Amino acid sequence: MKGLLTFQQVEDLDAESRYLVHKAKEAAQHAYAPYSKFYVGTAILLEDDILVIGNNQENVAYPLSMCAERVALYTAASSHPDKKLKKMAVVAHKKNQKELTPITPCGGCRQVMLEYETAQKKPIQIVMLTEGSGWIILPSVSFLLPYSFNQENLI
Ligand code: THU
Question: Structural domains in the chain?
Answer without folding.
Answer: 5-154 (3.40.140.10)
